[in-house]
Amino acid sequence: MALQSSFSIHDEKYDDDGLIKRTGSWVTASAHIVTAVIGSGVLSLAWAVAQLGWIAGCIVLILFSLITLLTSFLLADCYRYPDSVHGIRNPTYMAMVKSILGGVQYRYCALAQYANLVGVTIGFTLTGSISMVAIQKCNCFHKYGHEADCSTTNYQFMAIFGIFEILLSQIPNFHELSWLSIVAAIMSFGYASIGIGLSIAKIAEEGYHINTGLTGLVVGVDVTGTEKLWNTFQAIGNIAFAYCFSMVIVEIQDTLKSSPPENQVMKKSSLVGIIITTFFYALCGLLGYAAFGNKAPGNFLTGFGFYEPYWLVDIGNLFIIIHLVGAYQVFAQPIFSAVERLGSKQWPQSKLMTKEYDVRIPFVGIWRMNMFRLTWRTIYVIITTLIAMILPFFNNVVGLLGAISFFPLTVYFPTEMYLTQAQVPKYSTIWIGMKLLSGFCLIVTLVAAVGSIEGIVSDLKTYHPFNPN
Q: For 58, what's the count of Cα atoms within 13 Å in the CB-facing half-sphere?
């Protein structure tokens, strides 16, 4: 503690842990959160609401926004330990778990967090390429008609997405990603707004009529009883995991200035980010369901719920692509930094690990190049791109990884760390409430995992590699 204080007192360039001063604010942290939470999955919420209906759809949206807000507040108070304002920093989620709960739970946390982060980056590669394909198809449909055969593969688009990620992955750390997150957040507002606007236009069409219901798809009319059950499980899981950003929340908080206290600023950022997210989720989900009813497509910008105006659909998909390019980096940075920290610790004298070169790039400025960072991050992006190409139905696999990691990362670890940090007495009202929340979310995780496994099994039955979409 004394060592940390000496840095902040005697050198204005450094924080109390000896690192360069953090400069983030509630605005940049909110942008990181919106970037991490609002993905292209926002446009699939109409499908999720269609499976659940008006009543359950609204309840589930509100319920999981509140759960996410609560657990993000708990994590914010655990950033410093043992005291939430003056304690020692925990710069990463895993460092926090290790510091507060110990080594055994730390290893379980590492497995859950990195499996989810890797899965999400692969999913982003696939989803970004789907939006690129959608632009090409949209222009084809506009030119040749909606019944034209506009099939194409998305492998070349995955490669393009991967090239962009290789370039952006050379940004050294999270602290220098603020501009990228702000751009990505603006893009998420853009394509969500386009989806909302197109839905409103469809609802306002003269003579428009669509079937919706309080309980969603009708058994015996739209789906069988078994399909209704699986779809309901998947819809609950989709909405629950759509809010999940706990695996990067600590890294986001570690970008904040130390004054005012980081936990106060992070709570404000979480509140702003989740309010914005819930607002757009509700609009996209509910208006999308009103526009398409029980026949809502999985994603109404890439699944061609709308064909015209084709240029607006193109812009919406372009916004999705730009957003995913940024979101990939937000989720990949913890993986990058973990491997680089491990390498520096194992070989502290190695120039490969530690030496940085200043490379002047015209119109951009100075790029700080490190050979290990350049090599390792490039290899990571190439591997995730190849996996996305090999398993083009990987979104269901990501759904399963999300199901498995949702309970520990979003609920279990935050509640357990809070109970330990705040020294909450066993069997007190707060203690019982936290345990009940954990039990409920465990059930949600199991239900969603079952739905994801069923989706993977269905995909495997019809999987033909390297076929046109």
A: 8
Q: Which domain holds residue 409?
A: 22-347+369-461
Answer whether residue 8 is part of any domain.
no
In a domain, 467, yes or no: no
**Apex 71 CA angle, 395 and 289, nearest 5:** 45
**DSSP string for 314-368:** HHHHHHHHHHHHHHHHHHHHHHHHHHHHHHHHH-TT-HHHH--EEEEETTTEEEE
Gap between the Cα atoms of 421 and 88, Å rounded = 13
The pLDDT tens digits along the chain (469 residues) read 444 444 444 457 778 777 788 888 999 899 888 877 776 567 778 888 999 999 999 999 999 899 999 999 999 999 998 888 888 999 888 889 999 998 889 998 888 888 888 888 988 898 889 899 999 999 998 888 888 888 888 889 999 999 999 988 887 766 666 777 788 878 888 888 888 888 888 888 756 677 888 888 888 888 888 888 888 888 887 788 777 777 788 989 998 988 889 999 999 999 999 998 888 888 889 998 998 888 888 777 877 677 788 899 899 999 989 988 888 888 898 898 888 888 888 887 777 777 777 677 776 666 677 788 889 999 999 999 998 888 776 666 766 776 777 888 889 999 999 999 999 999 999 999 999 999 999 998 888 888 888 877 887 777 766 665 5
User: What is the DSSP code (8-state) at residue 206?
Assistant: T
The pair of structure tokens assigned to 42 is: 């926002």
Pull the structure tokens for residue 108.
């379980």
pTM of the model: 0.80
401 within some domain: yes
For residue 22, give the DSSP letter. Answer: P
Residue 440 forms part of a structural domain = yes
32-51: b (≥16 Cβ within 10 Å) or e: bbbbbbbbbbbbbbbbbbbb
DSSP label of 132: H
